[in-house]
Amino acid sequence: MRAVVTERRDLTGDLWIVRVRPDDPLAFRAGQYVSIGLPSQDKLIERPYSIVSSPDEPELEFFFELVPHGELTPRLYEVAAGGEVYLRRSAKGLFVYDHASSHKHHFMVATVTGVAPYASIVRQFVANARKGAAIPAHITILEAASLSAELGYDAEFAGYAQEFEWFDYIATVSRPWVDTAWAGERGRAEDVLRKHLDAAGCDPADTTAYLCGHPQMVANGQGILERAGLPGKSIKSELFWVSTQKAAEA
After folding, report:
1. Which pTM value belongs to this model?
2. 31 with 120: CB under 8 angstroms?
3. What are the residues whose beta carbons fall under 8 Å from the beta carbon of 190, sequence distance 6 or more?
4. Where in 125-199 does DSSP place strands (E)?
5. In order of start, what are the domains of the chain with their CATH numbers?
6. Which of 10, 29, 186, 191 minimizes the number of CB atoms within 10 Å of its CB?
7. Contacts of 93 by beta carbon, 8 Å cutoff, 6+ apart
8. CA–CA distance, 118 with 111 (Å, rounded to integer)
């Protein structure tokens, strides 16, 4: 179905956020993705993207990263507010909040655009909390980027952390010598993951961990979480692309 771009916000030369208004409502669970496409000659080029907005929002939000030689993102990059994209009519994906475990701690690790499904999940909890619902768990988001300009939702998350006791947000930058004004955490996600996991009081028996974004971070994070004592069933992961090495091995 067709969707009109209602808003666009550029963060850097290769990262941008858009909101779209589809012709028909799209039902989805927080954390799921939908395929977005643009026509090219006689076919539609499509790729899956996690939805940033919560299921209750009237528009859909997405966080894009330009792949210079990709088939789709260079085309998406040229779509301004008022332009059109196409969406599949059904969302998919199992990278959603772990309600079934009833765990008290949920520790979410992301690199750059990998924060998208967490934003959807947290926005839904925030909406529920503002309506008076009790939030029975503590959620922590650890987001890593090379530079602070790549942190698309840091101000929003920091605001939630101030408003709600059940939410914490940690941003870390891996190139602080370039980002000289940065005064927050420093290092890659893997460098500081165990430190903040322990600081959050995450008991391995009562914690679900989530890894989303760069495949190397996901692989490294998996090992760190396992060494911290989390069982495999309590670690959820979502790769935002397949590394060149893995593709060759496949």
Report:
1. 0.94
2. yes
3. 217, 220, 221, 224
4. 138-145, 167-173, 185-186
5. 2-87 (2.40.30.10), 105-245 (3.40.50.80)
6. 10
7. 29, 31, 32, 33, 48, 50, 117, 238
8. 11
